[in-house]
Specification:
This protein is mainly beta and 456 residues long. It contains four helices and 26 strands.
Length: 456
């Protein structure tokens, strides 16, 4: 048992909880919790295997967590364009070889088309030309009609009236195909071949698939692919989206398998399915990110309760400083930043509220120069309303919120009661303590499991 205690201590001391930021200076449900809200955050690279939604690679290459949380009132939280998704599930065809139809461009034979490597974030293959073909041979896929023809990529340019076909062809020349005929980025088509029309010069039925053919017809086209497959018998799940139900105008969750291109708005990243567990998503869009006082580090929040000697009706006053800063990084693009605060008390309780901009990280909260502050007290004019205090937030710049608020004894009791912290910051459910406790219990379970195995 002594060894168990030592191992647990070492485990807890040496492990890092990515995303474990936040503080419990006060009960933020009861008191002030200023926050910066972001309409859209774009991450240059998101690794599904080792990153949480709000983890990112900083300019030193380390994976760190934003001092933030997701706004749970935003239903379509994530945006993915599937030509910017890199994963083996899209490029491993044909599976019984060490080759890839997408990554090994030299294995295609061409007539009238040029084949080259794509020059984008995601490695792929490009086909360009007029009324030509490119052929990938030496396949042997039986049960052809049970197969799903998957094509993922972009139509970079195409002549009016032209089209591009992706054909699954059998030995005597019969084929079934999917067709693209307009420009678009991030197109995903998945066709169960049993449901496709037969064409070609054979016996009129699709037997064993022996090759894939890319064919441009009636003009010139330029197409880039990051995914191609004719071997699967089931479709890949792109994710869950919301769409309006025509009958009652209510939104409903829908599983998406295809897209005509553009960013697909997903409710969660997990809805993309098991195939994407180790995918890398480029330019991931995150809608509704909140950087609140509760998300800030301990050193970035200062709270002091003192006697309100000059205010007979209120025995206590709260003096609160909060530093909020949006990280600036090469991999992050920020859009739509505003600094807001909810008014928890009636107007006359707010002795003063000020906001300072451009405060250095190493400046103590108590040492911020008065000349940096702008008075925003007049913004507080309605209880339970959220007020915009600054609509010109710059990433990398430090903002300090300073409020002096008059309190009744019951207010003080509620603010100091942080036992329920974990009810969550602005716009979410759960909280930092909840996350840490989940991790700790998992660590304990791991340790006990280790010793049980040792005892068997």
């Amino acid at each position: 048992m002594k060894r168990l205690g030592v191992l647990l201590i070492v485990l807890l001391a040496s492990s890092t909880v990515v995303g474990a930021v936040g503080n419990t200076a006060i009960n933020y449900d009861a008191g002030p919790n200023p926050f910066i809200e972001e309409q859209m955050l774009t991450k240059a690279t998101h690794n599904m295997s080792n990153m949480g939604a709000l983890d990112y690679s900083n300019d030193d290459g380390d994976i760190v967590a934003l001092p933030a949380h997701l706004n749970s009132s935003v239903e379509s939280q994530f945006g993915v364009r599937f030509d910017k998704v890199s994963d083996d599930a899209l490029t491993e065809f044909p599976r019984d070889t060490n080759k890839s139809a997408v990554l090994d461009q030299g294995d295609w034979t061409t007539s009238g088309l040029t084949v080259s490597e794509t020059n984008t974030d995601v490695e792929g293959i490009n086909f360009a030309g007029s009324s030509g073909t490119a052929t990938y041979s030496d396949l042997s896929l039986d049960d052809a009609n049970k197969r799903v023809l998957l094509v993922v990529g972009n139509v970079n340019s195409i002549d009016a009236g032209a089209s591009v076909q992706f054909r699954a062809v059998d030995a005597d020349g019969d084929y079934k195909a999917v067709t693209w005929n307009q420009t678009g980025s991030g197109i995903v088509t998945q066709q169960k071949l049993a449901g496709a029309s037969i064409a070609g010069s054979g016996d009129g039925s699709l037997d064993t698939i022996t090759k894939l053919v890319v064919a441009t017809q009636n003009g010139s086209a330029d197409v880039s692919l990051v995914g191609l497959d004719a071997e699967r018998k089931s479709k890949l799940v792109l994710g869950t989206t919301l769409q309006e139900n025509d009958s009652d105008d209510e939104t409903e969750s829908v599983t998406r398998y295809e897209t005509d291109g553009g960013v697909v708005e997903l409710t969660t990243l997990d809805s993309m399915g098991d195939w994407s567990a180790d995918a890398v998503v480029h330019d991931l869009e995150i809608n509704g990110v909140i950087y609140s006082a509760e998300d800030a580090k301990n050193d970035d929040v200062s709270v002091e309760f003192s006697n309100a000697d000059n205010y007979a009706s209120y025995p206590t006053k709260l003096d609160m400083h909060v530093r909020l800063e949006i990280p600036a990084a090469i991999d992050l693009t920020h859009q739509g930043l505003t600094l807001n605060a909810e008014q928890k008390y009636v107007n006359q309780r707010y002795v003063g509220v000020k906001l300072a901009e451009g405060v250095a990280d190493d400046t103590k909260l108590s040492n911020v120069s008065e000349s940096k502050y702008s008075d925003v007290t007049n913004n507080y004019n309605a209880v339970s309303e959220t007020h915009e205090l600054d609509a010109t937030i710059s990433p990398g710049s430090g903002y300090v919120f300073h409020a002096t608020i008059l309190l009744q004894s019951d207010d003080v009791r509620k603010l100091k009661d942080t036992s329920g912290s974990g009810s969550g910051p602005v716009g979410t459910s759960g909280g930092i303590l909840s996350s840490i406790w989940t991790w700790v219990t998992a660590a304990v379970a791991t340790v006990f499991g280790f010793f049980r195995m040792r005892g068997n």
